[in-house]
UniProtKB/TrEMBL annotation:
Residues 63-226 form the SIS domain. It comes from Streptomyces antioxidans. A lyase-type mechanism (elimination/hydration) is suggested for the cleavage of the lactyl ether bond of MurNAc 6-phosphate, with the formation of an alpha,beta-unsaturated aldehyde intermediate with (E)-stereochemistry, followed by the syn addition of water to give product. It catalyses: N-acetyl-D-muramate 6-phosphate + H2O = N-acetyl-D-glucosamine 6-phosphate + (R)-lactate. This is N-acetylmuramic acid 6-phosphate etherase. Its EC number is 4.2.1.126. Homodimer. The active site is at E91 (proton donor), E122. Pathway: Amino-sugar metabolism; N-acetylmuramate degradation. One of its GO terms (molecular function) is carbohydrate derivative binding. One of its GO terms (biological process) is peptidoglycan turnover.
């Protein structure tokens, strides 16, 4: 059983800050051994995430319900945690056709902190509160506080303000019994152990965070009807690679040949989901769009009758 960390425990009591002696003399090891050492640590991360599968699933369902009603998914973090949230948020519109602003990333220190270190900003909970206020968060929104330590003041300020505003709150940390977990509705504690470079949570903790955010945002989009089978039918085909992918998506889902798929995609404004519906229904773009809108964007529901 993983020991919990009392809310008032000093920083060095955290698993992510553990320093049980000097540890391996990294600078004395052959490079191949160093690579294997880091890889061995990373290999344990997937199991730590798997142990939280049921809790992650509960978060996915809760977030999807709110987003189906018009809510947003808002990440709030500092340093690596904040950058990973912003990365995840930025990838959702092109991958799933989500409107800008539906998934948002906040980082302590603002945009400058994405590319530069603004470490002191994480110590101010009022900055977290102010950033949530800037978004005018409300009851349909979900705020996910991300902090490997589970005690970052900026993140705690953000989720506590979100609670006051009626948002659903989620806490993602890499320590058990973290203050962040006590401050949110749905805690996720992915305990990955001490880091290869002690205290450098951009390593195992960062990998765990990326895995959980991948799961959360991707599966919420699945629940919102942004896929058909395993195909990203809402992809924004904005370059040659993505247009080629859209053609393959349409041929795979509809059985049409490549020439037909390309022709219908052009008529559909290069929206694969619309093109597939047009082929299945033998109709124009507007009729297909209307059918998809009536089915809440779920292509499977449209195709069932054709």
């Amino acid at each position: 059983m993983i020991p919990s960390t009392p809310p008032t425990a000093p920083l060095d009591a955290l698993v992510t800050e553990r320093m049980d002696g000097i540890g391996p003399m990294l600078d004395a090891l052959p490079t191949t051994d160093l690579v294997r050492l880091v890889n061995d640590g990373d290999a344990a991360v997937a199991d730590a995430v798997r142990q939280q599968a049921s809790a992650i699933a509960a978060v996915v369902d809760a977030v999807a319900t709110r987003m189906a009603g018009g809510g947003r998914l808002i990440y709030a973090g500092a340093g690596t945690s904040g950058r990973l949230g912003i990365l995840d948020a930025s990838e959702i519109p092109p991958t799933f056709g989500a409107p800008p602003g539906q998934v948002v990333g906040l980082i302590a220190g603002g945009p400058q902190a994405i590319t530069e270190s603004v470490e002191a900003a994480e110590d101010d909970p009022e900055l977290g509160r102010a950033d949530i206020d800037t978004l005018h968060a409300g009851a349909l929104d979900t705020v996910v506080g991300i902090a490997s330590s589970g005690r970052t003041p900026y993140v705690l300020g953000a989720v506590r303000r979100a609670t006051e505003l009626g948002c659903l709150t989620v806490g993602l940390s890499c320590n058990a019994g973290a203050p962040l977990s006590a401050a949110v509705d749905l805690p996720l504690e992915v305990v990955v152990g001490e880091e290869t470079v002690r205290g450098s949570t951009r390593l195992r903790a960062g990998t765990a965070t990326k895995m959980v955010l991948n799961m959360l945002s991707t599966l919420v989009m699945v629940r919102l009807g942004k896929t058909y089978g395993s195909l990203m039918v809402d992809v924004q085909a904005t370059n040659d690679k993505l247009r080629h992918r859209a053609v393959r998506i349409v041929t795979t889902a509809s059985g049409a040949d490549e020439r037909t798929a390309r022709r219908v995609l052009e008529a559909a404004g290069w929206h694969a989901k619309t093109a597939i519906a047009m082929i299945a229904m033998d109709c124009d773009r507007e009729t297909a769009r209307a059918a998809l809108a009536a089915a809440a964007g779920r292509l499977g529901a449209v195709l069932e009758g054709h």
